[in-house]
Structures are given as structure tokens and as C-alpha cells.
Specification:
- This protein is mostly helical and 60 residues long.
- The chain has one domain.
- The protein has three helices and no strands.
- The termini are far apart.
Length: 60
Amino acid sequence: MPDTVKNISNDLKQFAIDRDWEQFHTPKNLSMALIAEAAELVEHFQWLTPEQSKTITGAK
């Protein structure tokens, strides 16, 4: 891993350790959280055509 990615990864791991969150970071919980976040992203594209999806911007 490049140093910057490794540093960020280490910082995030320490952040979770400091808050005692590691107990919740099981494969089941992490995969479920990932799916929930992905669903929020997909909802913006669900009923768009491929052409419309290419014009999405960050503005609401």
C-alpha cells in the first residue's frame, strides 16, 4: 500500500480502537453497513436511463 493509504488506514483503525468500536466490526456487521451505504447511492440512479445517469452532479 502507498504510504498515504497505509497512514489513512492506520488512522481509521486507531479511531475505531479509541472508541471501542472494534467489537462491532464483525464481517456480518461491516457487510451489512456497506450494503446500506451502497443502497443510498443506488437510489439516486434507480429510475434513470444510462444517459441521464451520466449527467448526475453533486448538486441537489
